[in-house]
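help with these tokens:
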Amino acid sequence: MPSKTLETFDNPNNEYDYTIHIRMPEFTCLCPKTGQPDFATLFLDYVPDNLCLELKSLKNYIWSYREEGTFHEAVTNQILKDLVAACAPRFMRLRAEFNVRGGIYTTVVVEHRALAWTPSPPVHLP
């Protein structure tokens, strides 16, 4: 069932940074102007701190937008705010790639970075 409740679980490895990548190809909401459905693929990347997002509750949360009229920019930012509030990650990025509408594709990217977190330098292998 659709739900705005997000569940979490304790990060089993919070002593170091690692990234969780989640792809959600079935996001839908409604255009607030026309009421027509908008379809998007959501890409969530985050570095957890003490909590990780539970995937079934995330699925139900994303499903809860199906009947809501909202602009692409507003819904992408609201989802990020809710996810950050639920799990307080070290870093989180949400990219929403909306399907074509009237010949226009929209991609919205929003990020959160914990104030005290500094990412590890990237490792470049030969």
About this structure: The mean pLDDT is 96.
